[in-house]
Amino acid sequence: MKNVPISWEKVPILGSTSSDIAEEGVLFPIKKPCLVTRIVSVLMKIGTAALWALGCFFLYLTVSACTSREAQISPVHRDQLTYSPAQDAIRYKEQVFTNGFTETSRYQGPPSKELDRAWWALYTHMTRIPPEDAAQLENTTVPIPGDPDGYYGVIFDVFHSLHCLDELRKHLWPDHYKSFAERYHVSQEVADMHMDHCVDAIRQSLMCHADVSTITFNHGGPNDDETDLHISGGHVHTCRDWEAIEEYVAAHEFVTPMRPKRVEDIILGGEWVDSE
């Protein structure tokens, strides 16, 4: 067996009654660690430091990635967590809602060609986006068949919701419009499922965007009773600028065999889709 190097250390004995021992102390032997032990100790210290450094590095990468993602999102659309090709077109403005009773919009009233044309123009938009935009989508899409640049097709959810709302509008006028089943050549069961789908799609969209603009009250009624509350009109909302979104989709719209003309050509040309 190899001799382990020994050194001596003087350790005072506390509480000793001998003044000589208390002052001088007692020598205890201390074994010096061997070379292998010292190497292992050094390697463990290096490993611990390396793990700390690696952890700090990954933390830096995570923070940098989050910061970079936020930096790419303009303050105008910072509420848009999921990527949209149209997010740079998002603008906000204040808008007063019509109450639908004493103040009506162009989208209200009994059926007419003008009313159908106005509704049709609201939602017949399909958007053409480049591959680099398609690669950033949360859900994958497919290329447009025959597109010369290999662009991809999407439709923004708001247009789907408006399509559903228009179908429900037509459902209110059964004496004027053919039924959904007749117009789309499906069974009544499928038509009912589609109407149910539309109601819930609109519900999800409303709850998703959750407009928290306030609806206020006033005292009203035939006797102007101050103990009764009635909803007032002229409420101001914070809205996304619809015209800005329309400008984007008009610049990126594509046509299909189902819609052989661009929407602006249909409207400006005086044509409309006969829903009767």
Automatic annotation (TrEMBL):
<keyword id="KW-0472">Membrane</keyword>
<dbReference type="GO" id="GO:0043386">
    <property type="term" value="P:mycotoxin biosynthetic process"/>
</dbReference>
<protein>
    <submittedName>
        <fullName>Uncharacterized protein</fullName>
    </submittedName>
</protein>
<comment type="similarity">
    <text>Belongs to the ustYa family.</text>
</comment>
<keyword id="KW-1133">Transmembrane helix</keyword>
<feature type="transmembrane region" description="Helical">
    <location>
        <begin position="42"/>
        <end position="63"/>
    </location>
</feature>
<dbReference type="Pfam" id="PF11807">
    <property type="entry name" value="UstYa"/>
</dbReference>
<comment type="pathway">
    <text>Mycotoxin biosynthesis.</text>
</comment>
<dbReference type="InterPro" id="IPR021765">
    <property type="entry name" value="UstYa-like"/>
</dbReference>
<keyword id="KW-0812">Transmembrane</keyword>
